[in-house]
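FIELD: query
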Amino acid sequence: MRLKQRLERVFMKRTFVLIGVLLGFGCGLHAQAAAPVDVNVCDVVKSPASFDGKMVRIKGTVVAGFDEFVIKDATDPNCGFQVNAIWLSYPQGSKAKSGPAAIVTAQAAHNFAGTLKTPARTPVTLDKSKDFKQFDSLLAQTHQRGMDMCLGCARYEVTATLTGRLDTVADATMKRDASGKIVGLGGYGNMNAYPARLVLASVSDVTPKEIDYSKTDAITKGDAGISAPPSSGGGEFDDPFAVAVRLAGHMGAGPAGDQAKADVGLYPKPKEQNGVNVVFGVGNEAMPDGQGTKDSPDGVLYNCFFNRDHLQGNAIVFALFHIGHHISDMRSPKAADQDSPFIIDENNAWVITSVAAIVSGQKYLTLPGGYLFYNSAWPMDAREDKMEAALKDFLANEALLSH
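FIELD: result
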């Protein structure tokens, strides 16, 4: 009897020790998951690879632009790099409203020529708290007062504390072999050009700031915005792809017109599989790291998202030109642009977009943040300089890009 009692005491003692160890181990795991590292945007942009896979907490300002959904540094947005922001994504299945108006991302096709490394990622669950709902609602609002055409113009930017998982690469440029075939896809977000992506888990300390469009509103106030009927010839409910093709046909012969025709020609015809996939929805969720199931002529799938809620009327047509040019730059870059910084790709896409808008008869074209990019009232001899200056300011200050 004494032996039995002694054995029971020993067994219980060992059991409690084991339970204590397991509880301590479990608490350690919980503490690790619940203790994100505090970082700032510029530190991540400077050395992205060192943050890969980490749960972090960032105080930043989120911008939802035309082809942007990014976090900039809340105090000093100019980090001094070619891309001065972190791409923001929600976990898959989040069904949130905010995000870019239009983007294209590259994904390895079934016949991808490169070696694809699919990292193991810790799953992220989005806390759809009251703070998140406010955050999402604010960023989903567009500026619509007094403008005829303001592409991707959000009403607010939002400063907040953002917690989530950082996915990063050391180099976000697309890699090609000696024959020019793509063998490495780069980073995240639009054109896979961002070296870091935050997959959001929670938001707090939400502070909105309404973006000032007063100067451009004053210029365009009460103006219908169209100086002539759109040369596309399409009606209000016309297929935007058909409108874009017809509009490109009205452009004169020359580099810009030829390029615009090539850009809109990249979109697939009905039932055609050419590696370009079009989704009408919000491209705000983290794209999968894995390989696609379909083949593509160059081994890459180009997944395009167009948010119709933010692209009303002819805006969807101009977005097709813009994103089509991005696909051209990724799929068949000119020799001079193969290793160019992302700012060059964005510059070229906006030039094609402006040509489409001007040929369609737009009197004005405004970019996110209130940058008046085109005004038909500008004198012809000053128009090009004014457009270049507006685009330069926009790319540096709003798109957060530099050479």
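FIELD: remark
The first strand starts at residue 37 and ends at 39.
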